[in-house]
Write a structure and sequence with these properties.
globular, 9 strands, two-stranded antiparallel ribbon, polysaccharide degradation, Glycosyltransferase, cellulose degradation, about 625 residues, three-stranded antiparallel beta sheet, 6hp_glycosidase-like_sf, 21 helices
């Protein structure tokens, strides 16, 4: 057996097994090798022969085999060094960059609506009654009226808490309930906006403070009741009377020492239905707290049943409410309350009631009148129509509700048309303020409600991919509605002939003599009795305490305003006024528009409309 290789001298090389060749063979091979060795070697071959073992090793060391590539050792070492140096340099640069304090680009300044919103919410903190939370953030306020209800021998239960209505210390449940309903509505629609400006937790606390108090004003654990608390405190003033009460005395709420009577009602459909609406709306706000939400729904159900079974107006009979918050009807509260009850429970019987033609007729849905379209604590019909239009736009329940829902939707469109200056449905001041209360005092509370409805309805249309609506043969874009809302709110914030902001603390020129007992009396450790506070009522000096965010009653029909503490028609702020202001501000605030389409329907089951009945058989 033999192996053949390549002879380095150019000839074949045969390697033989020791026993495989004879001497003659070896001799012949030797002759061949001598012939090959006699040839002249070229330079390459000579270099191979002359190179020693060290030279071969040195040549091998000049290259590095890294698997897929053979590179020069010198190049490899140089490249590796450069990479290490670059890594060290990058680390040093990164360390220096971290050590240098960063200058973040400041966020864009909030718009005027957002600034005013922060302030407007603070007004509710100033109006709290009872034991105040630590985070109330009103330094001149303290715990007050801690014996409400307990000091009345006819009641003997705690009615501590809730909100004072305005500049005094009376707690009127009717306007307070409407205020909480309106705030809850705004949170359901615009919770993302509240959250974006850091006020969602605050406004929820405000609503819960009111809801917790309402649950104290009736037997909220029972399935049926026969009475509801309507009012705590008294503001009745007969001619020549010197009886200490919340009207006659001028005292800080913390110093009140006169009796505070409790007013109960046994037939008050308007009050009970409005309180039911407040609790039902709040249950949607607090749907993330299942136990509390269910508690609110149960209370709302009990109240609404009471409202339907015991008919009557809460303000009948010459009570304090007749003078301050007289209710003209309870039919609008039935439409309003049943709408909220349906949204809170998903029970279709409430929707059947809300869309009943006779109920709508009693509420005034099919006739005009001077106050048609004016949304207020006394007239909820306009708000109910907007709310039910939302239901039609987004869920379209169909038969048997469609006919009345379409009627409500059409009426809502007409009301929105009436807000536009081109139609002259309402007068305006020369400065542009719409006169929804026909030139009477305290106009701003009605203006902010209209601004909210216009804003939220325009957002409904946009969410439904509808660019506008018709006023007769004329089509108007949703931007026209938003423009109306903006101009009215901007008037309130200072774009008016007097350059006066009617929201305390907003801007540089705002009322300094607000009709408010707590704000007008200094917190100086002195107890001012019933008459002792009169000097603070009558002084010409500005209030020592600024009641931030309070929207005062507003100017007269000639754009004039008197910053006088004793003239409450100009300078008094109320819960209902500020609730509407907050709702309008959050609707207009922030970039872009939009409502939460689904949050309102969290309790509403899927709807499968049944087809209408077939027509009657044809007869000749």
């Amino acid at each position: 057996m033999s192996m053949y290789g390549r002879d380095p001298w150019g000839g074949p090389l045969e390697i033989c097994h020791p026993d495989s060749a004879t001497d003659d063979d070896r001799s012949r091979n030797l002759d061949i090798d001598r012939g090959a060795m006699s040839r002249t070697l070229d330079e390459t071959q000579q270099s191979w022969l002359l190179a020693g073992p060290g030279d071969q090793a040195r040549k091998k060391k000049k290259y590095v085999d890294i698997g897929c590539l053979v590179v020069s050792r010198k190049l490899f070492v140089w490249t590796l060094g450069v990479l290490l140096a670059a890594a060290v340099f990058a680390g040093v640069v990164a360390g220096i960059a971290k050590a240098i304090p960063r200058r973040h680009r400041p966020p864009p300044p909030p718009d005027d609506y957002t600034v005013a919103l922060h302030k407007a919410l603070m007004f509710f903190n100033a109006q709290r009654s009872g034991k105040l939370p630590k985070h109330n953030n009103i330094p001149w306020r303290g715990n007050s009226c801690m014996k409400d209800g307990l000091s009345d021998p006819a009641v003997r239960r705690s009615l501590v808490g809730g909100y004072y209505d305005a500049g005094g210390a009376v707690k009127f449940n009717f306007p307070a309930a409407f205020s909480m309903t309106l705030l809850s509505w705004s949170v359901i629609e615009y919770s993302a906006k509240y959250d974006a400006v850091g006020e969602l937790g605050h406004v929820r606390d405000i609503i819960k403070w009111g809801s917790d108090y309402f649950l104290k004003t009736f037997n909220s654990t029972a399935d049926s009741i026969d009475r509801v608390i309507a009012q705590v405190g008294s503001a009745a003033m007969s001619p020549g009377s010197t009886q200490p009460n919340d009207q006659y005395c001028w005292m800080r709420p913390e110093d009140i020492d006169y009796p505070r009577p409790v007013v109960e009602c046994h037939a008050c459909s308007d009050l009970a239905a409005e309180m039911a609406a407040a609790l039902a709306a709040a249950s949607i706000v607090f749907k993330d707290n299942k136990a509390y939400s269910q508690k609110l729904v149960h209370g709302a159900t009990t109240l609404f049943q009471f409202a339907r079974e015991r008919r009557g107006r809460y303000s009948a009979g010459g009570s304090d409410a007749t003078k301050f918050y007289n209710s003209t009807s309870y039919w609008d509260e039935f439409v309003w309350g049943s709408s909220w009850m349906y949204l809170a429970t998903g029970n279709s019987s409430y929707l059947t009631l809300a869309t009943h033609p006779k109920l709508a007729k009693h509420a005034g849905a099919f006739w005009g009148g001077p106050d048609y379209g004016v949304f207020s604590w006394d007239n909820k019909l306009t708000g109910a129509q907007v709310l039910l239009s939302r239901l039609r736009l987004f869920l379209s329940p169909g038969y048997p509700y469609e006919e009345m829902l379409r009627a409500f939707h059409n009426q809502t469109s007409i009301i929105m048309c009436s807000y536009l200056p081109i139609f002259k449905s309402f007068n305006r001041t020369r400065g542009g303020l719409i006169q929804l209360n026909h030139g009477k005092p305290q106009p701003l509370q009605y203006v902010v409600n209209a601004a909210f409805l216009a804003s939220v309805f325009s957002d409904y249309l946009e969410a439904a991919d509808t660019p506008g609506w018709y006023c007769g043969p004329h089509f108007y874009s949703i931007e026209v509605l938003r423009s109306f809302a903006r101009t009215q709110i901007e008037y309130i914030l200072g774009k008016n002939p007097l350059k006066m902001s009617y929201v305390v603390g907003f801007g540089n020129h705002y009322p300094k003599h607000v009709h408010h007992r707590g704000a007008s009396i200094p917190k100086n450790g002195v107890h001012y009795g019933c008459k002792g506070g009169w000097k603070w009522r009558d002084t010409k000096k500005p209030n020592p305490n600024i009641i931030v965010g309070a929207m005062v009653a507003g100017p007269d029909r000639h754009d004039r305003f008197k910053d006088a503490r004793k003239n409450y028609n100009y300078t008094e702020a109320t819960l209902v006024g500020n609730a509407g202001l907050v709702a309008a501000l959050v609707a207009l605030s922030g970039e872009g528009h939009g409502v939460d389409k689904n949050a309102m329907f969290s309790a509403v089951p899927p709807m499968f409309p049944s087809p209408p009945p077939p027509p009657a058989p044809w007869k000749p």
